[in-house]
Amino acid sequence: MAFGSAGGWAHGHKSNSQFFYYGAIQSMVEELDQYHLRIDAGVPGALDNLKAFQIEKRKEAEAILEHGYRAEKWATSSNVDKTTGNEQLIQSRRER
To answer: Where on the phi/psi map is residue 81: left (φ > 0), alpha (ψ -120 to 50), or beta?
Structure first.
């Protein structure tokens, strides 16, 4: 589901807040309602279709989380590299 992480400074400089787009939420709810309507109507295979839909969405969520973990790891290591690099520059200047 589409979301943004930028939403103003009200949540702090390093906010972990996620702001979901209303349209994305609404379309997901409507799609889920269709699965439930088919189940209630007794359409053959409707429950299996709902389960497949849920599995697909879980996989999408897992992929998003995995990407987030990788991005966080990259950002953290990047900051460590910058800090180490800056310390080395300062030390080399002091030695001059």
So the answer is: alpha
> Any idea where the domains of the chain sit in the sequence?
3-95
pTM of the predicted protein model: 0.59
Q: What is the pLDDT of residues 54-69, one digit of tens each?
A: 999 899 889 988 888 8
CA distances in angstroms from 55 to 31, 37, 60, 62, listed in the order given: 14, 19, 9, 10
In sequence order, what are the beta bridge partners of 4? 19
Task: With both helix axes pointing from N to C terminus, report the angle between 22-40 and 46-95 in degrees, rounded to the nearest 10.
Answer: 150
Burial degree of 32 (CB within 10 A; 0-12, 13-18, 19+):
middle
